[in-house]
Amino acid sequence: MKFSIRLLYLYLFSFIGLIITVIGCIRLIQLGIKVYIFKDADTYEYARPVLVEGQKQVDFEEDKKIQERENKRQRQREVAESVAMLLVGIPLYKYHWKLIKKENG
User: Fold this and answer.
1) Rounded CA gap, 66 and 46, in Å?
2) For a Cys-Cys bond, which of 44, 82, 98, 103 suits 28, CB 3.0-4.6 Å?
């Protein structure tokens, strides 16, 4: 096997594609674990503030609903980012690795 800049480029981009794919898989697995096993991982507890005369009372049920909607949107963003990583990483890795195998016979 002879060293060339082209071969270095192919190995580098194959490695980058593999890393992107692994990160995307890790993020999807992490999200699955948070959603199905550790369901409280995305919830936050708030202490009730002391009401001072003249202040409006805080509606904690509305805050909880807002937090649940935000958690759902955050999970959707995480899934979209992870799938995008897989859609970029897998072809990047496969294409460059196929070229490496073809060059090395």
Assistant:
1) 13
2) 82
